[in-house]
Amino acid sequence: MKYFGELAGYLSHEPLVQLQAFNADNKADRFKSFKDNVYKFDASSMGDERLTELLEFIERKRAIAVIGYASWLSQLVNFVTNNPSSLAKTKTLKTLIAISEHLHDETRDKVEQHFGAYIVSRYSNEEQGVLAQQLAGNEGFKLNHASYYFEILKLDCDLPAEPGELGRIVVTDLFNYAFPMIRYDTGDTGVISRGEEAEQEYSYLSAIYGRKQDLVFSAGGDPIHPITLSRTLKVYPEIKQWQFIQKTSSRYVVKLNLYRPIDDKVIIDCVKNIFGNEAEVEVEVVSDIPVLASGKRRSVICELEHEG
């Protein structure tokens, strides 16, 4: 945690705000917060009033960093962007760390433009901890080789994937003596690459696609990275939130929460440009993209396994 925090521009025991969904088993511990300089904030509901309270909390704690789900950070960034007067409350922030969800380019751009800070994506799971993280100003994921042995295996068998090939992320925990996890299939998919510079001894993840069951495919069967959708849809200021669902091998639904109306044909043409002319695309306008019980918001969902 300390090492990857420093990679993100946050030093150990500098003030950190941790966004969480509170429940009976997970509440703020004042003594622990004081001891570690880590301050938990209940982000179960992130409306404008709560976002205002969060900004005041950040200012009061003089936080250097904020860590939380990517969708929560996106809501915070959008709120500040739309309310420039609130930007002064974030003047101590140096970095934002997004976890558990895909970090959209639009959020990254807004943080760098308006906050003058970095935002990085951290790849971790509950079973093992921090597995990889982006470096400030770099979209590649540096792997935690000190604690884990990583393998990227082919999607349909246990043979190693080639560099640049999409595969399953499999991890062996080197230090979990209580419950050894050998070749643990995380359920996530990604692409492993080698650094071009000679001093880069280890490989890194050039892309993380997320859960295998949420990997989406073109009408021709090719895997599509969520970032492709993010970079396509971010150019439309009408869109507040979006969710992409693959229903069958060639049928797709795009749910949109809008600031103002947009022609469905514009979105349909964009999706067909990515997924192929054979794609059947439906646009559904909604009032909100709901979160899961965990507080996460899924931007991309694949229902192919339920087909037939």
Automatic annotation (TrEMBL):
Signal peptide: none annotated. Transmembrane segments: none annotated. InterPro entries: ANL_N_sf (IPR042099), CapK_Type1_Caps_Biosynth (IPR053158). PANTHER family: CAPSULAR POLYSACCHARIDE BIOSYNTHESIS PROTEIN. This is Phenylacetate-CoA ligase. It comes from Halomonas salipaludis. The lineage of its organism: Bacteria, Pseudomonadati, Pseudomonadota, Gammaproteobacteria, Oceanospirillales.
